[in-house]
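## Example record

The block below lists the input lines for one assembly entry, exactly as stored, with component labels intact.
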Amino acid sequence: MNEKMRVMTDRPLNAETPLESLRSWITDNDVFFKRNQGQIPQKPVSLSDWRLQVDGLVNLKLATTFEDLRRLPRAVVADTLECSGNSRSLLKKKASGNPWTVGGVGNAVWGGIWLRDLLEKAGLKADARHVSFEGFDQPLGSAGIKFIRSIPIEKAMSSTLLAYEMNGQPLPLEHGHPLRALALGWTGASCVKWLKRITVLDKPFEGFFMDRVYRVFQKGEDSKSGQVVTDIEIKSIIVEPADGQTLSIQTVPIRGAAYAGEEGIKKVDVSVDGGSTWHPADLVGPEQLYAWRHWEYRWKPPAAGDYTIMSRATDTKDQMQPMQANWNSLGYGNNGITEHAVTVHING
Amino acid sequence: MNEKMRVMTDRPLNAETPLESLRSWITDNDVFFKRNQGQIPQKPVSLSDWRLQVDGLVNLKLATTFEDLRRLPRAVVADTLECSGNSRSLLKKKASGNPWTVGGVGNAVWGGIWLRDLLEKAGLKADARHVSFEGFDQPLGSAGIKFIRSIPIEKAMSSTLLAYEMNGQPLPLEHGHPLRALALGWTGASCVKWLKRITVLDKPFEGFFMDRVYRVFQKGEDSKSGQVVTDIEIKSIIVEPADGQTLSIQTVPIRGAAYAGEEGIKKVDVSVDGGSTWHPADLVGPEQLYAWRHWEYRWKPPAAGDYTIMSRATDTKDQMQPMQANWNSLGYGNNGITEHAVTVHING
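Predicted structure tokens for the full assembly:
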């Protein structure tokens, strides 16, 4: 575990990407956020022993070797992954769960195969509607509930990767070695690690991690009444200057990242007066669907004093980041605009 | 030093990226090829002590701090770096120099600033024509010649980065911490590491590493008669299968990378019959100017036997990789098509 990460819990392991690492377009594997429900395998599985089971509503059940996967058509995609509960601790009205600040996010270039190529090999039956993923992590806690999640067949057949490589390295143990699902543009909850089994179903998988959590619902409601968390909503974060920072009166680069799941980033605006007026930021660095876009606004403070800095992203569907996210019991999808209070003083 | 790298010499350190790491779009910093003329600094310079001198034909000499650089507009670019002498050992007629195979190449996403922003701050005089780079690596050998290189002012002002970040990490010591020049799309020879001084000149810098090496000349000619090595020429490499590999008779993914310096990759063709017929490969993964493009051709061998596999790239200016590179005394720019001899046998 890299010492720069902010560890929230160690059983299961939940730790944030440090703020300084969010400055980069590539998030280094070593500091890429870690969010787990179960116990990470103690050592990597032997690639020659490992098999990926494909079963359920298929014409041909598969027990695929790692070498079989490596022979399938190669897919390489930059994908920004965010924890469903990221920024939960920034909600004004508190919600249950790990107290993520903004570091439950990272961007990597992933190598692997398209899930559809594997499912086409197996052959889908007519009533195939959902695809569930199971890993070989062990449940933690007395309930002994496995982390199993499913996604709709349309997502599985269009834009879901099975990744065996992350930023030029074989997928590291803590990130799901040897294989993890990546529903591109969706939150980490659909991106099961340490895959061992993929099952085609006629409806969503039923179980604790589908029915009781990763759903958007209000206090007092039955969790199952809520919508399942899927794609990442339009959001931007300010990476520098830090909240509370004192600056000298010269040009200040205000920098951050913006991302919108399955959509691209059209623009980012910055306010230095608490949201009264907004100024377009420059978009910086690689532009790739599913990957975040970095941005910069070069601010010239007119005078010493206290300022409130905000950023606001707009996606290619003209959806704009809201001032406040829709609150829900488990605090998922907090994409509300955040405020950095900074003080500018005369340089001396 | 990562144990997977093939070390050619250790004083100075020259080592290749391992073949398996060339499968990925991102080349991990730890295995990214290393090519040096001098002695790598033993430990990182203190960022608070470090200054970047900018002098020569400028209106205002600068001694820039690292914090000054961080405040300049941020630039983030994917750039494939290749050693001028890469693939030298594959030339049929031998040439002098380190015996690189195909691993003197790698791709990273670099973060930093545009050199032009710094030069504009200094202000160019009317006779500014070249820009030289000097690092704080120590010369090796009794001659005590510093590795100093210059590039034309047009390249410096259009597409040259000063990078302080590599694949999401602060620039590692072995890759030039805290700052290296990156003439985008040009070979490593113009991309000086451990920068301490940038000088604006009215002509190319004169010295051993400009006049005697990194020039394309024939035996018996004076080295200065040759052209200075600048941009990377159109090339493709086969990463898998390996040369000499034995394969079973099933679909074989033939995979590799293609790159063309300042140009994009238009297409890659593959031959499995020693160059008689060619088949278009699929281009795979991110497309970014200055970065390589990965490709794949799914070959179905018609029968058991011996085959010669080749790949041939074409760039966006319709320049095609040649069967043989133009030979020169120091074996620079070997972009000739390589042959992989593979044997296919009946499975079973």
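The longest strand of chain B covers residues 305-315. Helices of chain B lie at 66-71, 115-122, 153-158, 208-211.
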